[in-house]
From TrEMBL:
The lineage of its organism: Eukaryota, Fungi, Dikarya, Ascomycota, Pezizomycotina. InterPro entries: FAD-bd_PCMH, FAD-bd_PCMH-like_sf, FAD-bd_PCMH_sub2, FAD-linked_Oxidoreductase, Oxid_FAD_bind_N. Residues 66-237 form the FAD-binding PCMH-type domain. GO terms for molecular function: FAD binding; oxidoreductase activity. The keyword RNA-binding does not apply. Residues 1-17 form the signal peptide. This is FAD-binding PCMH-type domain-containing protein. Belongs to the oxygen-dependent FAD-linked oxidoreductase family. Keywords: FAD, Flavoprotein, Oxidoreductase, Signal. PROSITE patterns: FAD_PCMH.
C-alpha cells in the first residue's frame, strides 16, 4: 500500500514535470498570447494586422525604412496601462518596441518584426504648471504642438528645431535646440521624468528623487525604463527672429569661412543660433548652401549673424516671427514618406575641418550616388559652444560628459533621402565610406572631436563609448540598479544600449 502511494506520488511528479516542461515547447507565452492578455486587460488598446489602426501606427514614422511587422500594436492611454504591459512583457520572452515621434530613421530602433509595438499616440497631454514654470508633456507629443501650446503664454521649452520630431526620443538622446547655447541640451532642462521601470513600478526621477536615474535619462537612451511624462522648464521668448537663407554654390569659400567664424565668434552671443547646410538636389542637378538663422529676441539685425546676412543669397526668409510659426513653416518642407539615412561626424570648429567635410562629402555624393534621380543629400553643421556644454554642467550635468575645454565644436550630420528601396544598401554603404574618409582626414589633421551625438548617429556608430568623464561605467551601474533582469536591454528593441557599448 505504502509503496503504491509512493509510486503514484512519483508518477504524478513526473507527469507534472513533463506537462510544465515538455521538450521543445516554449515555457513562456507566444507574442499572440501576450497581445491577447493585454487585449483582455485593457480592452480596445490592441490592434492586429488587417486593422486600420495597425496600419496607421506601423506607418506612423518619418522614414518608410522603419515600417515593420509587429505581431500587434498596443496603444495605451496612460502610465498605468504601460506599467501593466511591462509586467506582462517581462513575463514573456517576446520583444517589444516603443515609438514616440517616430523620427529615428533606423529600422528596428522604434519598431519590431514579430513583437509588440507600443505606440504613444494617445499619451499626448500638454499641461502648463500653475506657476507656468514648467510644462508636462506626454511621450506621444511632437515639438511643434508643444511650441504652439506655449506660444499662447509667450513661453518656449527646449526641444527640436523641426516641429515634427518627437518629444521622447529627442530628450532621451540629449536634444539640440535653438536655445542650447543659452541653456544646454534640451534634456538639461527636464525638471522630472515619470518612468515605468522593468518591475512595472512607476517612479518620478528628478534632482531630488532617483537622481541617478534622472541624470542617466538626460542622454542615456532607452536602457533604463519607459518614460511616460516629461516635465520641462519653460522660458520667456515671445518674439524671435528666424528664417532660412539660400546661398549659391559659387560661394563655397565665403560660406565655409562664415560658418567657421560663427563657430568661433558669432556663437559667443548665446542668443544666436544657425544650422548651416550643404544641400545637394539631384533632380535639379544642383548644390546650394542653406542656413537657418535664429535669434532669441525682437531685433533681427544682429552682429552675431551679420556675416551670414551679408552673403549673396538666392532667397531669405529671415525676419521677426515666433518659434512656433517658424517651425510650422519649415515642417512643410520636410514631410514624412521618403526613405532616410543619417550618420554623424564631429570636429573642432575650424575652417580646415569644414573644408575637408565639404569636399569629401560633395565629391563622394557626385561620384557614387548622382545616378539616383530623386536623391537629396545634405550635411548640417551644428556649432556647439563652450557655453552650451557648461550650461548643462551648471544644471546638474548629463551623461554625455562633453569636454568644454576643447569647445567650440561642429557636430555634423549627413542626411540622405530617396524613394526606391533598391538603393537602400548602396546609400548606407556610400554614407559609411564618406564618413570613414572624413574621419581619416580629420584625424590626420588633428581636427577630429570625440563626441558622437546619439540622435544624429547611424546604425553601428559608437555613441556611449565616446561619452566623457567615465560616464559609461556610471550608466552601466544605473542600468543594473534599475533593470537588473535587463528587460530594456534585451527585449526592448533597438536604440543604442549602454550595455552594448
Ligand atoms: C527632420 C529631423 C529633424 C531633427 N531635428 C533635430 C533637432 O533639431 N535637434 C535634435 O537634437 N535632434 C533632431 N533630430 C533627431 C531626433 O532627435 C531623433 O531622431 C530622435 O530620436 C527623434 O525622437 P522621436 O521621439 O521622434 O523618435 P522615435 O523614433 O519614436 O524613438 C527614438 C528612440 O527613442 C526611444 N523611445 C521613444 N519613446 C520612448 C519612451 N517614451 N521611453 C523610452 N524610450 C523611448 C525608442 O526606443 C527609440 O530608440 C531630428 C531628426 C529629424 C528626422
Ligand atoms: C565676421 O567675419 C569677419 C571677417 O572674416 C570676422 O573677423 C568676424 O569674426 C566675423 N564675425 C562673426 C560674428 O562671426
Ligand atoms: C538632417 O538631420 C538633422 C539631425 O537629425 C536634422 O536636424 C535636419 O533637419 C535633417 N535635415 C533634413 C533635410 O532632413
Amino acid at each position: 500500500m505504502r509503496s503504491t502511494v509512493a509510486h503514484l506520488g512519483l508518477l504524478s511528479a513526473v507527469v507534472a514535470a513533463s506537462s510544465t516542461c515538455p521538450p521543445d515547447y516554449p515555457t513562456k507565452p507566444y507574442p499572440t498570447d501576450v497581445c491577447q492578455t493585454l487585449d483582455k486587460q485593457y480592452p480596445e488598446t490592441i490592434f492586429y494586422p488587417g486593422s486600420k489602426t495597425y496600419k496607421d501606427e506601423n506607418e506612423n514614422y518619418w522614414s518608410p525604412t522603419t515600417y515593420s511587422n509587429p505581431a500587434c500594436v498596443f496603444v495605451p492611454s496612460n502610465a498605468d496601462q504601460v506599467a501593466g504591459a511591462v509586467k506582462v512583457l517581462a513575463n514573456s520572452d517576446i520583444k517589444f518596441a516603443v515609438r514616440g515621434g517616430g523620427h529615428m530613421p533606423i529600422r528596428g530602433y522604434a519598431n519590431t518584426d514579430g513583437g509588440v509595438l507600443i505606440a504613444f499616440t494617445k499619451m499626448d497631454q500638454i499641461e502648463l504648471s500653475e506657476d507656468k514654470s514648467s510644462v508636462s508633456v506626454g511621450p506621444g507629443q511632437k515639438w511643434g504642438s508643444v511650441y504652439n501650446y506655449l506660444e499662447l503664454h509667450g513661453l518656449i521649452a527646449l526641444g527640436g528645431r523641426v516641429g515634427l520630431v518627437g518629444v521622447p526620443g529627442l530628450l532621451l538622446g540629449g536634444g539640440i535646440s535653438f536655445y542650447s547655447n543659452q541653456h544646454g541640451f534640451a534634456s538639461d532642462n527636464v525638471v522630472a521624468f515619470e518612468v515605468v521601470l522593468a518591475s512595472g513600478k512607476i517612479v518620478t526621477a528628478s534632482a531630488e528623487k532617483h537622481s541617478d536615474l534622472f541624470w542617466a535619462l538626460k542622454g542615456g537612451g532607452n536602457s533604463f525604463g519607459i518614460v511616460t511624462r516629461f516635465d520641462l522648464a519653460t522660458f520667456n521668448s515671445p518674439k524671435v527672429c528666424a528664417g532660412v537663407l539660400q546661398i549659391p554654390s559659387t560661394q563655397r569659400d565665403e560660406f565655409l569661412s562664415t560658418v567657421a567664424s560663427f563657430g568661433q565668434e558669432g556663437s559667443k552671443d548665446a542668443k544666436a543660433a544657425v544650422i548651416p547646410s550643404i544641400f545637394m538636389l539631384r533632380l535639379l542637378d544642383a548644390t546650394v548652401y542653406t542656413s537657418a538663422l535664429f535669434y532669441d529676441g525682437e531685433k533681427c539685425d544682429q552682429p552675431a549673424l551679420s556675416n551670414f546676412t551679408a552673403l549673396p543669397t538666392l532667397a531669405s526668409t529671415y525676419g521677426p516671427t515666433t518659434l512656433a510659426k517658424y517651425v510650422a513653416g519649415t515642417d512643410a518642407l520636410i514631410p514624412p514618406g521618403t526613405r532616410q539615412h543619417f550618420q554623424v561626424v564631429s570636429s573642432f570648429a575650424t575652417a580646415e575641418a569644414l573644408e575637408a567635410v565639404h569636399d569629401i562629402f560633395v565629391s563622394g555624393v557626385k561620384d557614387e550616388l548622382w545616378d539616383i534621380l530623386d536623391l537629396q543629400a545634405s550635411v548640417a553643421f551644428q556649432p556647439i559652444t563652450k557655453q552650451f556644454v557648461e550650461a548643462g554642467v551648471k544644471k546638474g550635468g548629463n551623461p554625455q560628459g562633453v569636454d568644454p575645454s576643447k569647445a567650440p565644436y561642429f557636430w555634423m550630420v549627413q542626411n540622405f533621402s530617396w524613394s526606391n528601396e533598391k538603393y537602400d544598401q548602396r546609400i548606407v554603404d556610400v554614407c559609411a565610406s564618406i564618413t570613414a574618409k572624413i574621419n581619416k582626414k580629420l584625424d590626420a589633421t588633428g581636427q577630429k572631436a570625440q563626441y558622437q551625438y546619439l540622435n544624429d548617429a547611424g546604425e553601428g556608430q559608437s555613441v556611449f563609448q565616446n561619452y566623457g568623464d567615465g560616464n559609461l561605467a556610471k550608466l552601466k551601474e544605473i542600468r543594473a540598479k534599475y533593470d537588473p533582469a535587463r528587460l530594456f536591454t534585451d527585449s526592448l528593441n533597438g536604440g543604442w544600449k549602454v550595455e552594448d557599448a
